[in-house]
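Hey, can you fold this one?
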Amino acid sequence: MRKISHVSEADHQLVTAAVAEAEHHTSGEIVTIVTDLSDDYHDIALSWATMIAFLALSVVAVFPDFYLGMVDRALGGWEHDWTASEYLALIFLFMGGKWLGTWLLMKWMPLRLFLTPKHIKMRRVRARAIDLFKVGTESKTVGRTGVLLYLSMREHRAEIVADEAIASKVAPEVWGDAMIALIDNLREGRPGEGMAEAVRQMGVVLAEHFPKGSENPNELPDRLIEI
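Sure. Predicted structure:
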C-alpha cells in the first residue's frame, strides 16, 4: 500500500535546507519529525461508548413507561406484562445497542479527536515525542546536543525535546517563539514553512549556547523524517 504523505516534497526540501543552514552555526543537532497522528485514542472511543450506554440506562430508569410503550408499539401495539427478567434483558439490549452505536460513530477519527479533551491530546503528543526522542536522538551525539522538533498534524500540536546538555542551559520557555511560528503556520496550512521557521529560530538559540566548533561532525540526519 502506498504511504500517504503528510507534507509535500517542497516542504521536505524546505525543512531539510533549514536544518542544514541552522547547523552551520551551532554544534547542536536538530532532528525534525512529522506525523499524521500521535495516538489512536481507542480508549477515548471506549470511554464515550460506555458513558453513553450508562446515560441511556439512567434515562430508561427515569422514564420506564415511555420506553416500554415504544417497545409495545414496535411489537404491534399489544401491551405485554413484562417480567423482571424480561425487563432486565430489555435494558441490557438497549444499553448494548447504545454502546455499539456510539462505538461505531467514534470510529470516525475527526469525531474522536473532537471529543478528546485537549489536555489528553497534549499529553499523548508529548509522550510520543519523548519516545521518538529516546529512540533516535537522546545520547546520539558526542556532546549530547541533539534536539527534536516533533509535529503531530491532526492534533495541531508540536513539541521540542532536547538532550541533556541543551536542557541544562536552555529553559523550555525559550523555545516559545519557535513553537508559535510553527503552530501559526500550521493553522494556515503551511506546515513546511512553519517547521522551517521553527528550525531557524531554534538554530539562533543553539548558536548562542552551543556555537560551532572546529570539529563538528554531522551526527544526526538533516532531512525531515515522516512517520
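The mean pLDDT is 86. Let me know if you want another pass with a different chain boundary.
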